[in-house]
Design goal:
alpha+beta, Immunoglobulin-like, 9 strands, about 20% strand, rod-shaped
């Protein structure tokens, strides 16, 4: 068991009204200020303090303390608790701020005199308090109905009346005047031309089959007969030596 951090009676900025009077009885009241701060105030009578001091021998008294009991998650019967810690105080201060380590905890406390051996003579016990959460919790209401996105609703929600349909009726029917007769625009009276059908996309398999058939037809056609000697003579280009040999032949 260790001594926790605490502070004396400096008022907080938001304290603008008086707390309920404790009367003449020995009482201790706890109030949760925020997730990490508790405010305690008390009234302890002089006869009660003197009776507690009488239970200690000479030099056995150690300090005046608030002993906090963590009762989170248990059924507190006044004795059992998960953890306890002491906060040194001055009895004559009448109030004290206590800083805590964790939010969302449940506490009660005893105010009393502590001996050097750790024994506590309690003067009064406080009420139970529960500190709030430090951050918001995300909770889903299980009773809420799940509606599909975009699904039309045919019935009004619970607690709401359907809107009344208001129809304005005339006392007697009357013929429409020339100013009230509305003719459709000339543009709407013209016939709308039929849309041009979109061109059909060619099937790649049909195109491929057609090309393969053309290649096969070309392979089956016979090559034309040709005289290779005549073709060679026509394509022959004489060189310098051939010209000289031809000149010598003509000279002889």
């Amino acid at each position: 068991m260790t001594d926790a951090e605490g502070g004396a009676a400096e008022p907080l900025a938001f304290e603008t009204c008086a707390l309920p009077e404790l009367g003449e009885d020995d009482r201790l009241v706890l109030m949760a200020v925020d997730p990490y701060l508790v405010y305690a105030y008390w009234n302890v009578t002089a006869p009660r303090i003197a009776a507690a001091q009488a239970l200690f021998g000479k030099d056995e008294l150690d300090a005046h303390v608030l002993r906090f009991h963590d009762t989170t998650g248990i059924e507190f019967d006044g004795v059992n608790c998960g953890n306890s810690f002491d906060v040194r105080i001055r009895l004559d201060a009448g109030k004290w701020y206590v800083r805590l380590w964790s939010p969302e905890r449940r506490y009660c406390a005893d105010i009393g005199l502590r001996g050097k051996d750790g024994r506590l003579v309690a003067l009064a016990r406080s009420n139970l308090i529960e500190t709030p959460a430090a951050w918001p919790h995300v909770k889903v209401d299980e009773a809420s109905a799940l509606v599909e996105q975009g699904a039309p609703t045919s019935e009004p929600a619970l607690g709401m009346e359907p809107p009344a349909v208001v129809v304005a009726l005339e006392a007697e029917p009357r013929a429409a005047t020339a100013m009230e007769v509305q003719h459709p625009p000339a543009a709407l009276e013209r016939e709308t031309p039929a849309p041009t059908p979109a061109p059909r996309r060619a099937d790649s398999r049909v195109v491929l089959a057609r090309k393969l058939a053309e290649v096969a037809a070309l392979r089956d056609e016979p090559l034309p007969a040709a005289d290779l000697t005549e073709m060679a003579e026509k394509s022959f280009v004489p060189g310098v030596s051939s010209v000289l040999l031809g000149a010598r032949g003509r000279a002889k």
